[in-house]
């Protein structure tokens, strides 16, 4: 069992963050001691890890409860789709900013160089804690939910057509 302070140190977050998650109903202590200390056990630790993962994906705190509670599959899918679309919007916005900067630099050849390629994207996913299975699941969900957007995304990574076809085929397999 860990106190708020111990939990905060272990996961490199502030006590305030953990207390905020409690106020939002996301993370409740397992028990409270007579002196008012909050104690967190393994279930609460796993829940905090899930909360932190969803936050790392950019999901707002207000949308995390349905994902943690897994009560409504349609609501979960809506939240994840909305986040996927928000990320896509942000990527498009960043691409427009890149183009504007390149034009200001008067070096259009920079546009031909892909800023994020397959290897860089894989590094980013691994750094975010994704295993090979997690990445496959990510592709499977993307293919299932938005096949055309998945195709466009893979093309944006400068992956050749044959490899894109292979990725999309294994993305459709269970």
TrEMBL record:
<feature type="domain" description="HTH merR-type">
    <location>
        <begin position="1"/>
        <end position="70"/>
    </location>
</feature>
<dbReference type="GO" id="GO:0003677">
    <property type="term" value="F:DNA binding"/>
</dbReference>
<dbReference type="InterPro" id="IPR047057">
    <property type="entry name" value="MerR_fam"/>
</dbReference>
<keyword id="KW-0238">DNA-binding</keyword>
<dbReference type="GO" id="GO:0003700">
    <property type="term" value="F:DNA-binding transcription factor activity"/>
</dbReference>
<dbReference type="InterPro" id="IPR000551">
    <property type="entry name" value="MerR-type_HTH_dom"/>
</dbReference>
<dbReference type="InterPro" id="IPR009061">
    <property type="entry name" value="DNA-bd_dom_put_sf"/>
</dbReference>
<protein>
    <submittedName>
        <fullName>MerR family transcriptional regulator</fullName>
    </submittedName>
</protein>
<dbReference type="Pfam" id="PF13411">
    <property type="entry name" value="MerR_1"/>
</dbReference>
